[in-house]
Specification:
About 40% of the residues lie in helices and about 15% in strands. The protein has nine helices and eight strands.
Length: about 230
């Protein structure tokens, strides 16, 4: 076991940091990658709700432990070992979310929070049994493919709703998960995977968009639109 497994920065485990860095390789929207040592520490800190100093310290430790390396622009990149571990964490999280919604009756929004809490509870063998009992689901409740390689292959086909050209119809495919309050608001507002959506008017000076969700027009904050990933028709 790595010495890092005994280290938690303001309540967050190594796996949570690796998972966050994994998502920051996503090319669009809320998960757009940052460059530069200061920028990446700030983005990780923002997503995990910790100080930039704590995030920077953990990034240094991850780098020393061979799980993270720096790219040409000083961005944090997962090494092969870091990628393998992060993908395992991501897949496990998504299977637990489906267990919570399909078997335990939790809502999709609730499942994300509880999956974070239960991540260390289930062994790898338990996760595979759960996956089999669930019928090997293709996606988590928020639309992310359970298998990371499927997710990565699909990335190029998606854009953030905030970046969709006005007048072009699309369908919601995935929802950003790292902000629990935002995730709950998606479900409260009917912004769920499979829903038809269209940008009626692009960003206003205040940053809001006007969108049509299943035929009903409404304003939407840019922050929310950056966390909704769609496939254009």
């Amino acid at each position: 076991m790595s010495r890092l497994d005994d280290v938690r920065a303001q309540g967050h485990s190594v796996d949570e940091y690796l998972e966050t860095i994994y998502f920051l390789a996503f090319p669009i929207g809320e998960y757009r990658p940052a460059t530069g040592s200061t920028a990446i520490a700030s983005r990780v800190a923002e997503m995990l709700g910790v100080s930039r100093a704590s995030a920077g310290e953990m990034l240094k430790r991850l780098e020393a432990d061979g799980l993270v390396e720096r790219g040409d622009q000083k961005e944090a990149l997962l090494t092969p070992a870091g990628t393998e571990r992060a993908e395992k964490v991501v897949r496990k999280h998504r299977i637990i979310e489906r267990f919570l919604t399909d078997f335990m009756g939790y809502t999709a929004a609730e499942s994300h929070v509880h999956a974070d809490e239960l991540g260390d509870t289930f062994s790898d063998e338990m996760i595979e049994r759960i996956n089999e009992r669930l019928g090997r689901p293709a996606r988590c409740p928020h639309g992310w493919p359970v298998e990371p390689e499927v997710e990565q292959a699909e990335n190029a086909a998606l854009v953030a709703l905030a970046e969709l050209e006005p007048g072009r119809p699309a369908e919601i495919v995935r929802l950003a998960e790292h902000d629990g309050e935002l995730l709950h608001s998606f479900y409260d507002d009917g912004l769920v995977p499979g829903t038809p959506v269209e940008v009626v008017r692009g960003r206003s000076p205040g940053g809001d968009l006007r969108v049509a969700i299943a035929g009903s027009e409404r304003p939407l904050e840019e922050r929310a639109a950056l966390g909704i990933y769609v496939r254009a028709a």
